[in-house]
C-alpha cells in the first residue's frame, strides 16, 4: 500500500489557501459556512480537531453540547470568531431550540458535502484498513496492510515501524487533544471529506483513494 498522505499535502495546502481566500473576500457568510471555512483554512485536521475538542468535553457520553460547552470548544481550538458569532453558530445548529446540539449531527453539517460515490469509496478504504472489524483502525490493523519498508525515515533508521504507523494515525486525529492512536470511522470520513473539498473531479478522487489503499 502506498503512503496515502503523499499527494494529499499539496491538495490540503491548496484547500487551506482557497478557504482563506473565501473567508477574506468581503462577502457575508452564514455561521455554518464561516465555521467550515475557518476549519478548512487549517487543513484536513481542522474539523477533526474541533470534533475531538467537543468529545473531550462530553463527560457523560451523551454526545450533546450546551451553549457554554460549545463556546468553550470553539475557543479551545483557537478559531478566530467573536462571542456573538459563536452564539449565532450555536443557534443555527440548535434547530429545535432545546439548548443543546448533537455532536454527530453538528459534524455532519460542518464537513463539506460529498456525493454518495465518494462516501462509498471512503467506506471501502476504512473497511480494508479495519482488519479485525471492530470499528476502529489501530497500529495492529495497519501492520497488516501498510508497509513502511519504502518509507525514507524507516530506511534511514530515524524512525521505527511503530513510530511511523503512529504518525500515520495522528494525521486523522486532528493534531491536538486526545491522540489515542485509534481512528474511528467518523474521523476517517471527516478527514477525507475535507480532502474531498479540494478535488472537483469524482473520478480523480476515486482514483486517488484506490491508489492509496490498493483497491
| Overall structural domain count | 2
- CATH-level-2 architecture of the largest domain: Orthogonal Bundle
User: Could you describe the largest sheet, including whether it forms a barrel?
Assistant: 2 strands, antiparallel
Q: Give the termini distance in whole angstroms.
A: 9 Å
Q: Please give the oligomerization state of what you see.
A: single chain
| Overall helicity | 55-70%
Structural class: mainly alpha
CATH topology of the largest domain: Recoverin, domain 1
Measured by DSSP, the beta-strand proportion falls in under 5%
Task: Explain briefly what this protein structure is.
With 215 residues, the protein is mainly α. It has helices at 8-23, 31-40, 46-57, 67-76, 83-93, 103-110, 116-129, 139-145, 152-155, 161-170, 185-196, 202-213; strands at 64-66, 100-102, 136-137, 183-184. A two-stranded antiparallel sheet has the order 1-2. Strands 3-4 form a two-stranded antiparallel ribbon.
Topology summary:
Blueprint: H1 8-23, H2 31-40, H3 46-57, E1 64-66, H4 67-76, H5 83-93, E2 100-102, H6 103-110, H7 116-129, E3 136-137, H8 139-145, H9 152-155, H10 161-170, E4 183-184, H11 185-196, H12 202-213
Antiparallel strand pairs: 1-2, 3-4
GO molecular function: calcium ion binding
Protein name: GH22994p
Keywords: Calcium, Metal-binding, Repeat
Describe this entry's structure for a reader.
This protein is mainly alpha-helical and 215 residues long. It has two domains: 107 residues, Recoverin, domain 1, CATH 1.10.238; 98 residues, Orthogonal Bundle (Recoverin, domain 1), CATH 1.10.238.10. It has a two-stranded antiparallel ribbon with strand order 1-2. The radius of gyration is 18 Å and the shape is globular. The model has no long low-confidence stretch (mean pLDDT 79). InterPro entries: Ca-bind, EF-hand-dom_pair, EF_Hand_1_Ca_BS, EF_hand_dom. GO terms for molecular function: calcium ion binding.
